[in-house]
Amino acid sequence: MIKFLKQPMMRKVLIALAPIYLFSLWMYGLRVLAAALVVFVCGIGTEWLFERKRQGKVSEAVLVTCALYTLAWPPATPLWILAVGIVFAVAMAKGVYGGFGRNIFNPAIAGRAFVYISFAIVLSRAYTSFGNFGIGAVDVLSSATPLAQMRAHTPVPISNLLFGLRPGAMGESMTLLIVLAAVYLVLTKTASWRIILATLAGGAVTNLIILATGAQKALPMESLLAGSFLYMSVFMATDPVSAPKRQPSHYIYGALIGATAVIIRTFSAFPEGTSFAILFGNTFANLIDIAVDSFKKKAPAPDQKPAGSDASNPPAQPAAPRTKGGA
């Protein structure tokens, strides 16, 4: 019998993901359940093997990792590829570091990036059509994803991006549900609103700069809603373990992720750059905290003036010592 470590914060993330799962089920049918079953069994089983040797409990965080990882893929992704990715995520991005709370990188993102690089050709054919509970919708799509359309300088209807009427990963389609999930996570203090806003702002500003150079024609709204940018900003970048711990660091961290994602999307061979951007941000998370702490120590307090800063009030000179019998 597998025993789980109770983590209320992780349960709130699962609650936020529930409507997105229901929408994905309507969009793509039983393939969502099949993918979730494979991922959860392999992910929980992998963590149990690690915790069994440590005589510890399986964290409920692995449920969040499995849930986020499942929704990060197109519905027609081969199940064996999903299994390979989640085993890598739990084992190599979490287990080898000592388990929950000790990992440097977001496990779900690490697994996604590993699969994305290893099986790029297979995944390029893994998009299916939407609606009708997924019945008859398992063939390869002839239409391009929004990111591919943007690269080809083809306009993407905003309504399709908002309401999920587009091919893509299972969790990225319904933008409105992701926004509602973000509101819930922020109100319950489960996710940092600073990271979410900084990520979106970093992506939008970088997109405007690139737009001014003529390297791409997509507007910031299209860029932020296309692909997994919003999904990753809300659920992945805000991971409390791999993100910085200081609140001022959240702004730098989020802006770094947003800017990096847009740059990779525009200039690299990969149409989607959010996974690599978050891993890049994870790499510097602790360094950002150290830099912020160092800056705070060097900066003078608001009500404290550096010595000699006021020329009209020079520091008082010490009184001369009195000599015995002096005047």
Give the amount of beta strand, in percent: under 5%
The overall number of domains is 1
Radius of gyration: 25 Å
Cα end-to-end separation: 93 Å
Percent range of helical residues: 55-70%
What is the count of helical runs? 14
Give the assembly state of these chains: single chain
Q: State the total count of DSSP E strands.
A: 2
**Please, what is the average pLDDT?**
84
Task: Extract low-pLDDT stretches.
Answer: 129-143, 322-327
Estimated structural class: mainly alpha
Order the strands across the largest sheet as they lie in space: 1-2
The CATH architecture can be named as Orthogonal Bundle
Characterize the main sheet: 2 strands, parallel
What report would you give on this structure?
- The chain has helices spanning 8-28, 30-54, 61-71, 79-92, 107-118, 120-123, 146-151, 158-163, 175-187, 193-213, 220-225, 229-236, 247-267, 274-298, and strands spanning 4-5, 58-59.
- The chain has 327 residues and is mainly alpha-helical.
- It has one domain (4-294): Ammonium transporter fold (Orthogonal Bundle).
- The chain has a two-stranded parallel sheet.
- The protein is globular.
- The model is unreliable at 129-143 and 322-327 (pLDDT under 50).
What is the topology?
Layout: E1 4-5, H1 8-28, H2 30-54, E2 58-59, H3 61-71, H4 79-92, H5 107-118, H6 120-123, H7 146-151, H8 158-163, H9 175-187, H10 193-213, H11 220-225, H12 229-236, H13 247-267, H14 274-298
Parallel strand pairs: 1-2
Helix pairs in contact: 1-2, 1-3, 1-9, 2-3, 2-4, 3-4, 3-5, 4-5, 5-14, 9-12, 10-12, 10-13, 13-14
